[in-house]
Amino acid sequence: xxxxxxxxxxxxxxxxxxxxxxxxxxxxxxxxxxxxxxxxxxxxxxxxxxxxxxxxxxxxxxxxxxxxxxxxxxxxxxxxxxxxxxxxxxxxxxxxxxxxxxxxxxxxxxxxxxxxxxxxxxxxxxxxxxxxxxxxxxxxxxxxxxxxxxxxxxxxxxxxxxxxxxxxxxxxxxxxxxxxxxxxxxxxxxxxxxxxxxxxxxxxxxxxxxxxxxxxxxxxxxxxxxxxxxxxxxxxxxxxxxxxxxxxxxxxxxxxxxxxxxxxxxxxx
Length: 269
Prior knowledge:
By secondary structure, this protein is an alpha+beta fold. The chain is built from 7 helices and 12 strands. The strands form 4 sheets. The protein has a 5-stranded antiparallel beta sheet with strand order 1-2-3-4-5, with helices on one face. Strands 6-7-8 form a 3-stranded antiparallel beta sheet, with helices on one face. Strands 9-10 form a two-stranded antiparallel ribbon. Helix 1 (16-42) runs antiparallel to helix 2 and helix 5 (217-234) runs antiparallel to helix 6 (239-254). The radius of gyration is 24 Å and the shape is flat.
């Protein structure tokens, strides 16, 4: 993805972002194993069998070779990624997408831009850019396979729409302007940016699906209350730790402060 000035071009990732996490894991183990192998060669212990030393040294060689292979593949994927044509472009004219960017949505036809990103155990499960058009249609663009974080794409699209309309978030925050809540549709001067969802804990396995939500103070209370009841069943004995401490208390604290959250305004203005 390239973001130059007022333009963001996004390309297919070709698996490079996922491979980067593998490289970091291999680099960690390669560092430990290579250091241990070097110590065995430089100062072999008398009680250590030669077979054990060879196995340890061989394991270090295998991991180092795997790291080199992963780096080479990552470099090739990055070259392929940079050579690929853009499949999504966001600029002052609007949103262009598809092969050769043949399809487009000018900002004059766009009412709102939003996004939905869902992760489970740090794995990206879903990422879509949601666009609400003036004719009532709501196309959803899949941004999961693109070459950078989906949050960056969503935030850039929202910021571009605000700039085209001449809306300044700082002014809305200073004057406590009334903003329409995207959940209930009512006007509010207390927009909040909360994280909520469902956590599932099954003995030694847990998963979570938490989303960031921009809504008014009243809707935030309802959402947190509803999810708290659901998580009483899905978290069961870990509810006080996984839900109460990690989610409910921090998010409820935001509701005690009057006025807009700046992050909430960025997602509704």
